[in-house]
Design brief:
The complex is a heterodimer of chains A (335) and B (502). With 335 residues, chain A is an all-alpha fold. Chain A is 71% helix and 2% strand. In chain A, strand 2 and strand 3 form a beta hairpin. Chain B has 502 residues and is of the alpha/beta class. Chain B folds into three domains: 4-240, P-loop containing nucleotide triphosphate hydrolases (Rossmann fold), CATH 3.40.50; 256-331 and 416-502, P-loop containing nucleotide triphosphate hydrolases (Rossmann fold, 3-Layer(aba) Sandwich), CATH 3.40.50.300; 343-414, no CATH class. In chain B, the strands form five sheets. A six-stranded mixed beta sheet of chain B has the order 6-7-8-3-9-10, with helices on both faces. Chain B has a six-stranded mixed beta sheet with strand order 16-19-20-13-21-22, sandwiched between helices. In chain B, strands 2-1-4-5 form a four-stranded antiparallel beta sheet, covered by helices on one side. Chain B is globular. Classes of the chains: A mainly alpha (335), B alpha/beta (502).
Chain lengths: 335, 502
């Protein structure tokens, strides 16, 4: 047969570079900001924009590991309950006289354990989907929070603790700085390391991954544990901003978080998407909410708008996928 | 009336960037079994899709009973009595056999639109009985074996009054015995006047069944022969466009010291009392019928499944292998049977597939070095001669044989002592087969021990230094190179079955 030369260099394709979902998100982001600036004359103020981020960044911490979970082809809907449980335990412990720093640490430990428990159950009972397992643990975690605090609130945190959620360093909210650090760390983990590559492999074909010596269960447990830890981080910032905690905090966060990841172009079928998209989506949804808040759009309507945006995003990415398929008919037509 | 029930003239089909069929002719006689052969990518599947109305050709004419036809949809082709049965049956596993047979053309009472279950069940049962199937039309589809599901597909074709039945690789997933059953049914269909187009990679299917054979190569029509008037060499030459002087390479490897020893290995419900050894440079083949426990033995050695008794020794030392990672670190590589599900991430680039099993080699403390990865993957791809123009093409763009080469390249990534190859040439065309045998031979001459699982008799006899026959989880015979005959192997493979039947 003919000797063909194989190249080992990737050709750079301008079309492929611009044919990425992230550009679409950038475009949506710009449009939202233009509209917002017409709605309020005070909007286009850099300081204002930056400090606005603190209003929606709390849940963004969980978006990062949730991207990994969805890349695996799994889902975790217990995150809001994990946030609530760890927040409530922290509040109660502090009110019982435990030093704030220790209580905050315990908050992180509790949430991390919640995540680990999810991961353990999911890998132990493979016949159950992660939706069912995390739905169950979601009810359990929230239930424990209610047992601990019933319908009360816990709080009166020391003033240094509120600095976490409200403080700024050089005009930049502490939360934004913390998010930037975590975002870079998670992006590197996903796109530059063997761990990230293995996550994509599992999401694309778990069987082939197992046959290739990848320890699928171990990676799953690590990722669900990471989700738990980041729920704890969110819990700290959220509790700090609110100044007190109740068993019903963070209600509905799981949907927002999953929506951000999906809008970011991460396929719920697993294996496809990048973390940059999810991070962009955090800001798209965040600013959209903020802008609509400026003109006093009722929150119910706001939900409808975000829902519509999500459906449109998923539809568009689906159409793009089909276009791609038509364009790249394989060189040997098999079927 | 024309001699031919189906005649195709000058069919051309283009896809963006590729010509899938180029001026192809084809004639099908009434009541004949006509084999259609060619390498992967020769255009067989596209051709079938044109006959069944899935694709529309850019040029060419199609005549049915001498009448020009032009199908606009698969449904129209079906109404003209053309049915196709595919390699992977396209069934609904949770529905009953009857529902599967009548799906899309259910019997309905006029007016009330009530489904006539009784009629459908009895008609389905009649079709099954006619085909000699030993199962009930009310059985759930998913509980049937692949072979039985194929019979259902045939019944489905007959229920639409098909006059032309196209079978695309029907024996690919069948055991020898099940294939025999399929041959019998196919011959019966011919007796009843149905015309059959039969596509297969197994040349033995063709010799056993077909009256005439048509060969496609590189999207072109090469020729049609009466099977009684053509030699094997001529056909292979027509298929690959060159002479394959030797299918199996001359083995020149030196058999060295022992690599693997398995002693009384047992997995409850799958196999027991399995003992054998593999030496450096040696090819040991496990053969037998599908389901004899061959793959399960290999999967235990690779740590995919656990075993309940016995020992595994690697270079004389006992090892406990409980996961694939451990197996790989000990120098065992495994090429799985199902390359698309178990071997590859199809959407991924070739380079990422090759590196997947040995990512740590291309990383420093977990940081991937993509340049090193690409460089090494390129070398490995060249070593096994993958036919592609870039290692950044997706694995799904390759033909079966080349996908298999990618998996072999992937195994070569690690420092191995023992290669386990589970059906390495399954569903691979003749040209690629010879290439894979050449690679396997290379491996043994480099001192690898090879443990192969194979059901293909010529391969078993042509490649092995030692042949171990399994039947129902036990070893029933072992032969050294040159001692084995096809008959002796078959007898050993069915030993238990015969005893049970007596």
């Amino acid at each position: 047969m003919d000797e063909r030369k194989i190249t080992g260099h990737r050709e750079f394709s301008l079309k492929r570079f611009f044919f990425q979902w992230e550009w679409m998100l950038v475009l949506i982001f710009i449009i939202i900001n233009i509209i917002n600036s017409f709605l309020s004359p005070y909007y286009l103020n850099l300081r204002q924009l930056i400090s606005t981020t603190a209003t929606f960044l709390d849940k963004a911490f969980v978006v990062l590991p949730m991207t990994f979970v969805i890349l695996l082809g799994d889902i975790d809907i217990s995150v809001a309950s994990t946030i609530a449980l760890s927040s409530v335990i922290m509040g109660v412990l502090y009110n019982l006289g435990v030093p704030m720093a220790a209580a905050a640490l315990i908050c992180l430990v509790v949430s991390t354990l919640c995540g680990f428990f999810n991961g353990y159950l999911i890998t132990r009972f493979k016949e159950l989907s992660s939706v069912i397992i995390t739905l169950s643990t979601s009810i359990i975690y929230r239930g424990i929070a209610y047992i601990i605090l019933e319908d009360q609130a816990a709080g009166n945190f020391p003033s240094w603790f509120s600095f976490l959620g409200w403080g700024e360093l050089g005009g930049i909210p502490l939360m934004l700085i913390a998010f930037a650090v975590f975002a870079v760390a998670f992006a590197i983990l996903l796109h530059k390391t063997t761990f990230g590559r293995r996550v994509y492999a599992i999401g694309n074909n778990a069987t082939a991954s197992r046959f290739s010596g990848i320890q699928v269960d171990k990676i799953k447990i690590i990722i669900f544990t990471m989700v738990g830890f980041m729920c704890g981080v969110t819990s700290l910032f959220l509790t700090s901003r609110m100044g007190s905690t109740r068993p019903n905090v963070a209600l509905g966060y799981e949907l927002d978080i999953i929506a951000m990841v999906v809008l970011g172009g991460v396929s719920t079928a697993g294996g496809k998407g990048r973390i940059g998209g999810a991070i962009l989506a955090v800001f798209v949804i965040g600013f959209l909410r903020y802008g609509l808040g400026l003109i006093n759009v009722p929150s119910q309507l706001l939900l409808i708008i975000i829902g519509a945006l999500l459906v449109t995003a998923v539809l568009i990415s689906k159409i793009r996928m089909n276009v791609k398929k038509v364009r790249t008919v394989p060189s040997d037509i098999k079927q | 009336m024309s001699d031919y029930i189906l005649e195709m003239r000058g069919i051309t089909k283009q896809f963006p960037g590729v010509t899938a069929l180029d001026q192809v002719d084809f004639q099908l006689k009434r009541g004949e079994i006509h084999a259609l052969i060619g390498e992967n990518g020769a255009g067989k599947s596209t051709f079938i899709k044109i006959i069944t109305g899935v694709h529309k050709p850019e040029a060419g004419e199609m005549y049915l009973d001498g009448q020009k036809v032009d199908f606009k949809s698969p449904r129209e082709a079906q109404e003209h009595g053309i049915a196709a049965i595919y390699q992977h049956s396209t069934c609904y596993p949770d529905l009953s056999v009857t529902e599967n047979i009548f799906i899309g053309h259910e019997k309905i009472q006029k007016g009330t639109k009530r489904l006539l279950w009784k009629e459908m069940h009895s008609k389905a049962q009649a079709l099954l009985d006619e085909l000699g199937a030993g199962f009930d039309s009310r059985a759930q589809m998913g509980t049937l074996s692949v072979a039985q599901q194929q019979i259902v597909e045939i019944a489905k074709a007959l229920s639409t009054n098909a006059r032309i039945i196209i079978m695309d690789e029907p024996t690919a997933a069948l055991t020898r015995r099940e294939s025999e059953e399929l041959y019998r049914i196919t011959e019966k269909l011919r007796e009843n006047g149905t015309s059959i187009i039969f596509i297969s990679h197994r040349l033995e299917d063709m010799y056993r069944l077909a009256d005439r054979v048509t060969v496609f190569r590189d999207a072109k029509y090469i020729g049609t022969w009466n099977l009684s008037e053509v030699t094997n060499e001529q056909l292979i030459m027509a298929m690959v466009g060159r002479k394959i002087t030797q299918m199996f390479p001359q083995r020149k490897s030196q058999i060295g010291e022992e690599v693997l020893a398995v002693e009384n290995l047992r997995r409850i419900g799958y196999f027991e009392d399995i003992s054998f050894t593999v030496h450096k440079g040696e090819i040991v083949t496990l053969t037998g019928l599908v389901g004899a426990g061959r793959s399960e033995v290999c999967q235990c050695i690779f740590g995919l499944e656990e075993y309940h008794g016995g020992r595994i020794l690697l270079e004389g030392k006992e090892v406990k292998i409980d996961n694939p990672l451990k197996a790989m670190s000990l120098g065992i590589g495994y090429l799985p049977e199902d390359r698309q599900k178990q071997g590859l991430v199809l959407d991924w680039e070739i380079v990422k597939n090759i590196s997947l099993s040995a990512l740590d080699r291309y990383a420093n403390k977990g940081w991937l070095n993509e340049e090193l990865e690409a460089e090494s993957a390129l070398q490995l791809a060249q070593k096994v001669n993958v036919k592609t123009n870039s290692i950044f093409n997706p694995a799904s763009s390759l033909s079966g044989g080349n996908q298999q080469k990618v998996i072999i390249a992937k195994l070569l990534n690690a420092d191995l002592k023992l290669m386990i190859l589970d059906e390495p040439t399954k569903g691979v065309d003749v040209g690629a087969k010879a290439a894979i045998y050449e690679i396997i031979n290379d491996l043994t001459s480099q001192g690898y021990g090879v443990l192969m699982v194979s059901s293909e008799m010529p391969e078993v006899l042509g490649m092995s230094d030692k042949i171990i026959v399994m039947c129902e989880g036990r070893i029933t015979a072992a032969f050294n190179k040159g001692e084995a005959t096809q008959e002796a192997i078959l007898e050993a493979a069915m030993k238990k079955h015969a005893a049970a039947g007596a």
